[in-house]
Every structure is written in C-alpha cells, then in structure tokens.
Amino acid sequence: MPIEPDYLNKMQKIIESVNRNLSILNPEGVLTDLHELQVILDFLEREHEAQAIDYLYRIINPER
Question: Domain boundaries in the chain?
Fold first, then answer.
C-alpha cells in the first residue's frame, strides 16, 4: 500500500517536533541526533511501515 505524501509531511513535522523535544522521546540519551529518525522516515518512504514502527519502538524501549 503506497504511503500518501500527506503522511510523509506529517512524519517530517513529527521529526522536527521530536528534534525540539528529544528528552520526551529519549530520557536515556539514545537519540544523539536525527539519524535514527531519518532511518524511520526512509523506511516509511520505501513503504516499510512495520520496520519503521519496530525501529522507533526499539529507540523508545531499548531494554526489549
């Protein structure tokens, strides 16, 4: 299923928001820059939504 351009625009806004508020997503300092979020966006652009969600979950909950 193709990803709508509007969805990618929303993801970009989320990335920008997270960049401004890294401590909310990442209290342990796992995200040091936007590299991880760029990987997620790349997954989404290639229509790999499940991989993007899994990658984000591993960033948020690194113990699992």
Answer: 5-60
